[in-house]
Amino acid sequence: MSEHDPDDQRRALLQSAAGLLLAQAALPAGATPAAPERKGVGQPGDFDFLNGHWKIRHRRYKTDVKQWDTFEGEASCWSILKGIASIEELRIPARDFSGTGIRLLDVKNRLWHDYWVNGKSGVLTPPGQTGVFDNGVGTFGAEDTDDGKPIKVRGVWDRITPTSCRWFQGVSKDGGKTWDDNWFMDWTRA
């Protein structure tokens, strides 16, 4: 396999994703993501807007120093399985960081499941978020805990155009009444 051959790189990425999905199937029932409260409307191709190569400007809030940290990154994305799966390879060279986003459409329930794998551990991070797109905005959420207390987490895709989009995440400690949005990623097509 050539280090610079995009087809070889894509094939290796997809093989890794397949292995991770098998690992997800083996997770205990309590580790599966919570479904959103409304009925799904997800459909094949919802993530096709991400296909291609991107430059990304990150702005992440560092709670330990109470300030925003900004840095650059890049991503390559593919839709597979006729649009019911989307694979993202995220790279942040200045931070020596990489990871993979895996988004899968549960066709029967019409819900997207969004999973993350840190490139250093190679472990699928539960719980994955579930969600749908509504009026051009994709909202994904999950139940989690912070210091033993229940929280809600969400990720939102918005401002989607042919050449740009935005993703941001937030945390709610009051059952979703208020949100602390703590990471913004502004994507520009490379």
Unreliable runs, pLDDT <50, ≥5 residues?
Answer: 13-38
Radius of gyration: 16 Å
| Residues in helix, % | 10-25%
Task: Summarize model confidence as the mean pLDDT.
Answer: 85
How would you name the oligomeric state of the polypeptide chains in this document?
Answer: single chain
Query: H/E order of the elements?
Result: HEEEEEEEEEE
Span from first to last CA? 25 Å
CATH homologous superfamily heading:
Calycin beta-barrel core domain
With helices defined by DSSP (H or I, 4 residues minimum), what is the helix count?
1
Structural class: mainly beta
How many β-strand runs?
10
The total tally of domains equals: 1
Task: Please outline the helices and strands.
Blueprint: H1 6-25, E1 52-62, E2 67-80, E3 85-92, E4 97-106, E5 111-118, E6 124-134, E7 137-146, E8 149-158, E9 164-172, E10 180-189
Model description:
The chain is built from 1 helix and 10 strands, in the order H-E-E-E-E-E-E-E-E-E-E. The chain is mostly beta strands and 190 residues long. It has a 10-stranded antiparallel beta barrel with strand order 1-2-3-4-5-6-7-8-9-10. The chain has a single domain (6-189), classed as Calycin beta-barrel core domain (Lipocalin), CATH 2.40.128.20. Helices cover 11% and strands 53% of the residues. It starts with 5 loop residues before the first helix and ends with a strand. The relative contact order is 0.17.
